Amino acid sequence: MKFLKYIALSLFLTLSSTAFADVYSDIDDVSAKITEAEMALKNGASSDDVIILIREANKLTKIFKLPDTLAIKRQRANKHLKKARLAINKGDTAAGEAHLEKAAEDFKKLKGMI
Question: What is the C-alpha separation between 87 and 47, in angstroms, rounded?
Answer without folding.
Answer: 10
